[in-house]
Amino acid sequence: MIARATEQEAQAHLMHLFALASKDMHIRMTQHANTDPKSVMAATMRRTPRVGSNGGTAAGLVGSYDQVAERIVAFNRAGIETFMLQYQPFEPRCGGSPAEVIPRVRAIAGTEEVQGLRP
User: Fold this and answer.
1) What pTM value is reported for the model?
2) pLDDT tens across 9-21, in order?
């Protein structure tokens, strides 16, 4: 998840992470060569540019605090009950993004129970 005050800030950070990830291209090529191309994970990863482990940003949780909260609620309404979120960069964002996003998720969901969501 990359959540910032504005979508532009989030997208700028995503581009920064893509630039950093490009430095590890040799590692990605080795992983690709050792991954079964028929696996669901490999097929999913071929469709969407992403950064982060196990698909990272491929879920679309990149944007303003409001945009990310809306996407989480949409996933929850579709039946996703547990979210394992990774913040970038980890330490400075671990306190900030959840504190901004989770109250918005609860506000959007209204009286509906939001399953599996804890700060």
Assistant:
1) 0.70
2) 999 988 898 888 7
